[in-house]
């Protein structure tokens, strides 16, 4: 989510200096709402994972939920709440060696084909060792791969069926993106970070930053047609992709100007908007509603604020309002500063039945208050008028000490009924067995 400096050990975690911020620079357009405090409880539904990072339904009518563990395994929780002993998919022998203290690589995303019940196709994003021909001093190669479910066992993937759709070489360990998801249009969306490091500068970063450079895939959200093939590729380009025929643009690009869109989700109701939580650098965190062809500003801007890669701790008063080809930079719908938290963790728009007061609101979180220990914040944001920032609140957790989660927030999940789950662990790295999955339920 952001750079890792071993010399400062885990105090830094996701930021160059998570306690450093420009005093007085809190956003006046989207801020913490200190009005009535929403309440909820957390109900433990599964535990003993290492680093749970996705909680996904196959929407095949079975009620199964698939738990993605960063270390390279996908496990199944059956409709009765039982977690099967044998993993559904295991790519531990195909991913890079992970640092147990802290790592942003690993098995990061899972998406089931919209017709999974009939065709058994599923897709994953994971970090593999550098492929042949990649720059030798880079970190890893991220794969977007397709697998098929076993013909003999619906609870097992066929591990010999892997088909690599796309390989993305990455210069640094951090900023890999994560969630992959099928949109309501049936196309596969894949968020990719800017390559890592800090400020979108250094080895493997273009002169104008990868986020703004349209000839590279890093710092983008891609849209791919997995039901067709383009010449020389294992996937097709949707005919209405915004830059499919424009010189200097990779045709896979759906949106760009992103730092690390670690978690994305589509609203299962409303107008099915695409939400992307884009982890910030040192000062600001943001959530965007992503539009086709949109440029979200990185590294010209961090949130709604100007950004200077040479002086990351101060938001400059002025910067360009447009990107490299003259397009207007788009602002987020949610923003907060590092006086509140450290890394935004994207969630879902609530469309369930158990929490009617949350209907239509975006449930999300922050990794940890200061990054030194597990102290994540559960948050909710209410829709605002078009063009205006959404105000947000903390959710008071009535069955937790001090109303807080008391752990690192890693991710969120959503079941077939629109109910939302929160994925946590007590340690920052992919180690131990403290990973848990909780369901957000009404407060008593």
Would you kindly provide a written description of the structure presented here, covering whatever features stand out?
By secondary structure, this protein is mainly β. The chain has a domain at 6-20 and 50-344: TolB, C-terminal domain (Neuraminidase, 6 Propeller), CATH 2.120.10.30. The chain is built from one helix and 27 strands. It has one helix at residues 116-119, and strands at residues 39-49, 52-57, 65-69, 73-77, 89-90, 107-112, 121-128, 140-149, 157-170, 181-182, 188-191, 220-224, 253-256, 261-266, 274-278, 284-290, 301-302, 305-306, 334-337, 344-349, 362-366, 377-381, 392-394, 396-397, 408-414, 420-425, 435-441. The chain has a five-stranded mixed beta sheet with strand order 24-1-27-26-25, with no helix packed on it.
Mean pLDDT score: 92
Radius of gyration: 20 Å
Say what oligomer this is.
single chain
User: Which strands sit side by side, in order, in the main sheet?
Assistant: 24-1-27-26-25
Shape: globular
Give the CATH H-level superfamily of one domain: TolB, C-terminal domain
Distance from first to last alpha carbon: 35 Å
CATH class designation of one domain: Mainly Beta
Uncertain residue segments: 2-29
Instruction: Give the helix tally.
Output: 1
Instruction: Tell me roughly what share of residues is in helical segments.
Output: under 10%
CATH architecture assignment name of one domain: 6 Propeller
Structural class: mainly beta
The portion of residues forming beta strands comes to: 25-35%
Secondary-structure element series: EEEEEEHEEEEEEEEEEEEEEEEEEEEE
| CATH topology label of one domain | Neuraminidase
């Amino acid at each position: 989510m952001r750079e890792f400096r071993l010399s400062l050990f885990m105090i830094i975690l996701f930021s160059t200096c998570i306690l450093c911020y420009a005093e007085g620079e809190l956003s006046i357009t989207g801020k913490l709402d200190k009005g009535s405090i929403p309440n909820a409880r957390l109900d433990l539904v599964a535990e003993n994972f290492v680093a749970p990072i996705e909680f996904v339904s196959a929407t095949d009518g079975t009620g199964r939920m698939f738990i993605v563990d960063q270390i390279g395994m996908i496990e199944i929780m059956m409709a009765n709440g039982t977690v099967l002993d044998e993993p559904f998919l295991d790519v531990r022998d195909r991913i890079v060696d992970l640092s147990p203290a802290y790592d942003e690589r690993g098995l990061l995303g899972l998406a089931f084909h919209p017709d999974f019940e009939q065709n058994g196709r599923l897709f994953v994003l994971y970090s593999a060792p550098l492929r042949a021909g990649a720059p030798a001093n880079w970190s890893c190669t991220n794969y977007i791969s397709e697998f098929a479910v076993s013909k003999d066992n619906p609870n097992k993937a066929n591990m010999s069926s892997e088909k690599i759709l796309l390989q993305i070489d990455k210069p640094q360990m951090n900023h890999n993106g994560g969630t992959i998801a099928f949109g309501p249009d049936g196309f596969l969306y894949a968020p990719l970070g800017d390559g890592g490091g800090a400020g979108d500068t250094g080895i493997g970063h273009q002169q104008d930053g990868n986020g703004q450079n349209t000839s590279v895939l890093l710092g983008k959200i891609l849209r791919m047609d997995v039901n067709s093939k383009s010449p020389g590729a294992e996937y097709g380009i949707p005919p209405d992709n915004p830059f499919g025929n424009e010189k200097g643009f990779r045709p896979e690009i759906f949106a760009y100007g992103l730092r690390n869109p670690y978690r994305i989700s589509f609203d299962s109701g409303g107008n099915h908007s695409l939400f992307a939580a884009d982890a910030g650098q040192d000062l600001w965190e943001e959530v965007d509603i992503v539009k086709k062809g949109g440029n979200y500003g990185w590294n010209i801007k961090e949130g709604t604020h100007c950004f200077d890669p040479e002086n990351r701790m101060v938001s400059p008063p002025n910067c360009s309002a447009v990107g490299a080809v003259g397009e207007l930079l788009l602002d987020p719908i949610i923003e907060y500063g590092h006086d509140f938290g450290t890394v935004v963790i994207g969630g879902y728009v609530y469309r369930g039945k158990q929490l009617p007061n949350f209907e239509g609101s975006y449930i999300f979180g922050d990794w940890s208050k200061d990054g030194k220990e597990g102290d994540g914040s559960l948050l909710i944001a209410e829709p605002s008028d078009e063009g205006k920032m959404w105000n947000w609140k903390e959710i008071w957790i009535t069955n937790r000490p001090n109303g807080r989660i008391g752990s690192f927030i890693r991710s969120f999940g959503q079941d077939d009924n629109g109910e939302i789950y929160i994925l946590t662990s007590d340690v920052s790295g992919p180690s131990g067995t403290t990973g848990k999955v909780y369901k957000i339920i009404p407060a008593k």
